[in-house]
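This part of the workshop introduces the protein records we will be handling. An example says more than a description, so a record of this kind follows:
>
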Amino acid sequence: MLNQTTKWTLLSTLLYGMLSLGFAAEPPDWNDSEIQWMGYEQGINVAKQSGKPIMMIFYANWCPTCHAYKNIFNKPAVISLAKKLVMIKVNVDQSPHLSQRYQYDGGYVPRSFVMDSTGVVLEALYPEKSYKYFIKSQNIDGFKRLMEKALAVM
């Protein structure tokens, strides 16, 4: 028979494991009604056909910052820019191999990449720093600038 402390330890470990695997969290609300989000394969194909640059974001359901991106994707200026790009979102827990392929400076989330229409990351648009693909959820201007730079290159 397990004592009370052992039961609580097992329960808390189980709950933490479920949260870390994304079982207890909903996908982030990134304004799907106004921004056309695509999966990786579809987005790459659309970009190649249309010639539009890509913004791809790696996220996780359990990530608080990913959920806070709701503030970014509801801003009119960001919505307008998103319509000029191919917008791709990739859940790291559902696509671990794809996530690993884009772990240039770590596997953190969210990671935001801008790419040309063939899927090549536009490295020159990023500052030389640690976690350079991370954009704070409060940095709406930084997010817009990255989107604008991707459009200017194309």
About this structure: The beta strands are 37-38, 54-59, 86-91, 111-115. The mean pLDDT is 88.
